[in-house]
Amino acid sequence: MRWKGNKKYKEVITEDGYHLKAEYMKDSKYWWIVYKNGAVLYRAIAESEFATSLQTAQAKAQQQMIKHLKSTTT
């Protein structure tokens, strides 16, 4: 998966319609969201869901995408 962006924002769109974003919010907190074909599947809302680094936010978004993939294929 090849993420594009800069040190405060990264995103990737997969061939099967997933759109993952991770971005800097404030005070070393990084927000992330997962879309599928334009519909929001999951987003970090609570403070406890925010990541402490951009890489961690990317990983959390990927994990949520994988979890969704598994739930739709079983």
What secondary-structure arrangement, pairings included, does this model have?
Elements: E1 4-6, E2 9-13, E3 18-26, E4 29-36, E5 39-43, H1 54-73
Antiparallel strand pairs: 1-2, 2-3, 3-4, 4-5
Question: Can you give keywords for this protein?
Answer:
single chain, 74 residues, alpha+beta, 5-stranded antiparallel beta sheet, 41% strand
Task: Describe this structure as you would to a colleague.
The chain is globular, with a radius of gyration of 12 Å. It has a five-stranded antiparallel beta sheet, with helices on one face. The mean pLDDT is 94. The chain has one helix and five strands; from the N terminus they run E-E-E-E-E-H. 27% of the residues lie in helices and 41% in strands. It has one helix at residues 54-73, and strands at 4-6, 9-13, 18-26, 29-36, 39-43. Strand 4 (29-36) and strand 5 form a beta hairpin. The protein is α+β, with helices and mostly antiparallel strands and 74 residues long.
Concise synopsis of the structure shown:
The protein is of the alpha+beta class. The chain has one helix at 54-73, and strands at 4-6, 9-13, 18-26, 29-36, 39-43.
**Unreliable stretches:** none
Query: What kind of sheet is the major sheet?
Result: 5 strands, antiparallel
Strand neighbour order, sheet with most strands: 1-2-3-4-5
The secondary structure category is alpha+beta
Q: What amount of the residues lies in strands? A: 35-45%
Mean residue pLDDT: 94
Q: Give me the strand/helix succession.
A: EEEEEH
C-alpha Rg, in Å? 12 Å
Count of helical segments? Answer: 1
